[in-house]
Each structure stands twice: as C-alpha cells, then as structure tokens.
C-alpha cells in the first residue's frame, strides 16, 4: 500500500528528504506522496522513514492504493532497475 499525507500536515519539511524513492513532494497546500513511487520503503528500510520522522503522525496507509509487500518489492525493483 502506498502511503498518503493527511490534511493535518504542518509542512515541517522533515519527510521529503527521508524518502529514498523521491515520492514525497510539496503540493499546493501540504506535502503529497506519489503512489507510483511509494514502496513504504520496502527494499530500502524495514519501516517507512517518513512515518518515523513525522512529528504529527499525519502519514497513513492510502486505502485507495492497497498493495502487498510482494507488489511493493516489485515496484522497488522497477524503480531501482533491479527488474
């Protein structure tokens, strides 16, 4: 499942640099996550790094983009050129 940032985001800028897939970007009002790039850090870390650093816990699982760990690993491999 890709993650998403809720409207509780305070634009503190700590999540964006932590994303190894460059999936987090500044949207019109708050930071947003590109679901095509988000692997929940599968392939990079044991836990999503953005969730670890978010001071307001506004990064949640996106119910509109549900994926298994295997699908997230396949996305990671595609994004990193690992097949």
Automatic annotation (TrEMBL):
InterPro entries named among the record's database cross-references: 4Fe4S_Fe-S-bd (IPR017896), 4Fe4S_Fe_S_CS (IPR017900), PSI_iron-sulfur_center (IPR050157), YfhL-like (IPR047927)
UniProt keyword annotations, A-Z: 4Fe-4S, Electron transport, Iron, Iron-sulfur, Metal-binding, Repeat, Transport
One GO CC term on file: cytoplasm
Signal sequence range: none
Residues covered by the 4Fe-4S ferredoxin-type domain: 1-29, 31-64
Gene3D superfamilies: 3.30.70.20
Pfam hit, one: Fer4_7
Gene Ontology molecular-function annotations: 4 iron, 4 sulfur cluster binding; metal ion binding
Name of the molecule in the record: Ferredoxin
Source organism of the structure: Hydrogenophilus thermoluteolus (Pseudomonas hydrogenothermophila)
């Amino acid at each position: 499942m890709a993650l998403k940032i809720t409207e509780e985001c305070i634009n503190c800028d700590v999540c964006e640099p932590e994303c190894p897939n460059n999936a987090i970007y500044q949207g019109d009002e708050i930071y947003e996550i590109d679901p095509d790039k988000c692997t929940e850090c599968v392939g990079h870390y044991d836990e999503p790094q953005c969730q670890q650093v978010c001071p307001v816990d506004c990064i949640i699982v996106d119910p509109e983009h549900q994926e298994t760990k295997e699908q997230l690993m396949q996305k990671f491999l595609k994004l990193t050129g690992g097949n």
